[in-house]
Amino acid sequence: xxxxxxxxxxxxxxxxxxxxxxxxxxxxxxxxxxxxxxxxxxxxxxxxxxxxxxxxxxxxxxxxxxxxxxxxxxxxxxxxxxxxxxxxxxxxxxxxxxxxxxxxxxxxxxxxxxxxxxxxxxxxxxxxxxxxxxxxxxxxxxxxxxxxxxxxxxxxxxxxxxxxxxxxxxxxxxxxxxxxxxxxxxxxxxxxxxxxxxxxxxxxxxxxxxxxxxxxxxxxxxxxxxxxxxxxxxxxxxxxxxxxxxxxxxxxxxxxxxxxxxxxxxxxxxxxxxxxxxxxxxxxxxxxxxxxxxxxxxxxxxxxxxxxxxxxxxxxxxxxxxxxxxxxxxxxxxxxxxxxxxxxxxxxxxxxxxxxxxxxxxxxxxxxxxxxxxxxxxxxxxxxxxxxxxxxxxxxxxxxxxxxxxxxxxxxxxxxxxxxxxxxxxxxxxxxxxxxxxxxxxxxxxxxxxxxxxxxxxxxxxxxxxxxxxxxxxxxxxxxxxxxxxxxxxxxxxxxxxxxxxxxxxxxxxxxxxxxxxxxxxxxxxxxxxxxxxxxxxxxxxxxxxxxxxxxxxxxxxxxxxxxxxxxxxxxxxxxxxxxxxxxxxxxxxxxxxxxxxxxxxxxxxxxxxxxxxxxxxxxxxxxxxxxxxxxxxxxxxxxxxxxxxxxxxxxxxxxxxxxxxxxxxxxxxxxxxxxxxxxxxxxxxxxxxxxxxxxxxxxxxxxxx
Length: 706
Hints:
- Keywords: Calcium, Hydrolase, Metal-binding, Signal.
- Residues 514-591 are annotated as: Disordered.
- This protein has three domains: 49-443, Alkaline Phosphatase, subunit A, CATH 3.40.720.10; 445-527, Arylsulfatase, C-terminal domain (2-Layer Sandwich); 571-696, Jelly Rolls, CATH 2.60.120.
- The strands form five sheets. A ten-stranded mixed β-sheet has the order 7-6-5-4-8-1-9-10-2-11. Strands 18, 19, 21, 24, 26 and 27 form a six-stranded antiparallel β-sheet that branches. The chain has a five-stranded antiparallel β-sheet with strand order 17-20-25-22-23, with no helix packed on it.
- By secondary structure, it is an alpha+beta fold.
- The N and C termini lie far apart (65 Å).
- Residues 1-41, 552-568 and 700-706 have low confidence and may be disordered.
C-alpha cells in the first residue's frame, strides 16, 4: 500500500502537472496525424493501442466541437483530425453504460454489474497479448483487477468528493489513502494513467487503457482556477446559452439547418422569471460545471501530449464517449452561498442547466429520449481512419459496438466460453467499416432500457416511453429532436416496433416485456408536461441541506400529520417521501433506514398465518426487511422481522414473504432499502392462509376484503 508521503508527492505532482500547457505540441501532433491520413491505404496498420475515455453525465452540447461555449481545444482537436458521431447512443445511466461499454452487451443481458454473462474488453485484449490498465470510476461489482485489468487506480464508487475522494479508492487491488491536500480526482486519474503507460512502454506489447473520469458528475466541485475562468459567462441564463449552442450546432453541421430545437418544457421556467437568489445559485452551478469540463479537456490534452512525445499517437485508437446525457436530479446542496472550489462545498445538479446542456434535445439522464441517450462521441486513429479528417458520421451506433470494433481492429476474438461465467452473445457490431469510409447495416434495432424508461431505434424510426407511459413514435430522419409524435398516424408501425422491443427484451436481455397504454388523446411529446420528484423545484429559492427536487417545501408539522392520515394506513417513515400514483407507491429515500409502515391493521381481518406480497422496482441502496407485531401492546420495530433480498436494478421483481405462523398481526412495516434512492411498489397486499387477498394497498382508508 502506498505511504502517506507517496500519496502527498503524487498529489503535489498532480497540481503541478495540470498547469502544463500542451497547445503547441498538440498542434504539432495533429499536423502529423493529419499527414497520416494520406498514408498508403493498402498498408494495414499494426495492432493499435487503444485509449478508451469515458466521462460522466456530459450533455450533447457540452464540448466546443458539439456547440459549447466551454473551452475544450484538446477534444476539439481530436474531432478535427478524427471522426465525430452525431447519433451515438448510450444507456442513459452510469453503471449500465459501463457494462455495455466493456462487454458489447446490453446491461441486463451481461449480468448487470456482476458481468456474469460477459467478458470485458480487457479480458479479450489481455488474452491477445495486450498490456491492460484502467484509471478512474469503476461502479461495478468487485474490482477492475478481477476483470482483466492488470493495473488499476481509482474509486469503486459511483461518485465521490473531488478533493477528498472516498474510502473506495484502490491501487492495483489494494486500498489507497487519498491525500489530505493537493488532490483532485480528475487530475489524479491522468497521473496514474500516465504512470501505467510509462510501464506499458517498457515492453513491445500494445496496450489498452480505459480512463473513466467521474467528471462532470455531481458533486459540482471545480479547481479554483478553472472556476474563476468561467465567472460571468452564465449571467444571461440558460435560455440564451441554449439558443447560442443550437446556433453553433447548425454552423458545425451537426444538425440540419432546417431542424428546430425542442421547446422549453413546462418544468423549466424562463430565466428572467427566476428570483435573484435562484439566478445567483444557478449561475454558480453552471460555472462549476464548465470548470469541471474544461479540466477534463486539459487532462486529456496532457495525455495526448504524452502519446505524441512517445510516438504512440499515430497508432492509438482513441475513443471519447459519455455514459449518459446531462443529469437533472437536484438532490441536496451544501454551502450554496460559497464557491464550490474545495471539498467543504458540495452541490447537486440543476434541471434547468441539464435542459440547456442537452441542446437541442429533450429530457435527461435515465430517459430514453435523445437528451438522455445521445452524447458526444469522438474517434481519433490516424493510422486506421480512412475517413476525411473532421468528418461527421450520422449512422446510429451504440456503446455495445465498441468492444466488437476494438476486437476487430486488434484482430482479436471475443470468446464464447469463459471460466465461471455463462456467456451470452454480444449484441453490438463492429464499426470498422465506418472507419474505412464504408457504411454498415445494423443487424438488429438498438434496444433502449433503463428502469421504467424504454425505447427502440430501428433505422430512421424510434419509439420511446417515459416512465412507463405510452409509446411515442418519431421519424428521426426528419424530426431528430422528437417534437412530432406520430403514434396515432402510424399505429401499425408503432405496434410492430413495440413487439420487437418485447422480443429483444425477452430473447436478448432475458428481462420482462412491456405492455404500455395505447390510445392517449394527445400527440404532444410527454416531455412538455412531464414531472419527476427529483427535478428542480423552481417555485422556491434554493436552501442549504434541503432537497432541490419537486415537492421539497417544508410543511408545518400539523399539516404533515394530516396528510399522512389522509393517505390511509400507510405512512412514510424517516428519510422517506411517499407519493401515491394510481395503484403505485412512489418512494424517495433521502437517508438511512427509510421505509413505510402501517400502524394499525383492521381488527376484523381473517386469521392468519399471512403472507405479504408486492412488486418492487428499486434503484435504491441495500436490502430490506419486514417487521410485524403479534400483540396489540408492541410498537414497531419491536416484534418479528424478516430480511428481504432486494435487486436494485431498476426492474420490476415480485416478492412474497411468509409472516410466520401468527394468526393475528397488529402493525406492519416494510423497508425496501437501507439508504438513499428511488423505489416503486405496486400490488401491495396481505394474503390470508388460503392465499386470498385480505387487504390491498394503497387505499384512502382501510378496507377489509371478504
